[in-house]
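Example (one chain per record):
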Amino acid sequence: MEEGRGIYDNITKTLAYLLSGNVGELAVMFVAALLGWPLPLLPIQLLWINLVTDGLPALALATDPIDPGVLTRPPRHPEAHLVDWRFVQRIVFVGCLTAGVALSAFAYEWYTDHNLAHARDAAFSVLVMAELFRAFGARSDTRTVWQVGLVSNLQLCVIVMASFALQLALQYLPSMQVLFGTTPLSLVHAVVWLLLGSLPLLTLELRKVWQRSRTRRLRP
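Predicted structure:
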């Protein structure tokens, strides 16, 4: 029973992580088109995000260790659907958070110096960072990253660090710059995009804390 619940949890969190990322990417392109902006992401950049930034962490989430308290939860209703209204709300909310930070970076660069290459680079970098950070928060809907344990899934840690290294290679290797349309990041930009990319994870973690405190207050 414990193994079955663990498998179900891992399928759910992996699916939610992938769909949230896809919603975020679609929202970035859709909002930019509505506003009459140039394309904020190149097709090859979207392909990179789907195959590497989303795909590799999703594999690690699929093998996430079983929650120690999985047997203390009440049984799931036999007719409950995996994709229900609450699930849809969650992926839309997370996708909008991710799209919001990427579009903010794009808008800032575009309206500051009207350099499309720099604006696309900013959106691409922030979106990748947001997705990688969010993989840690995707491990649980109720427990924070620190409660789950930052290194309790070593595969995820290794994959995220390797993905960051690959992203740096895209930014600084000349051949990758030509292929992906990227430019080297200054130290200031790297720090700013890193902080901006961490906002979705921070928002989701604060939401978990608020929901837990609210649940405690409502208990008789």
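Caption: The radius of gyration is 18 Å.
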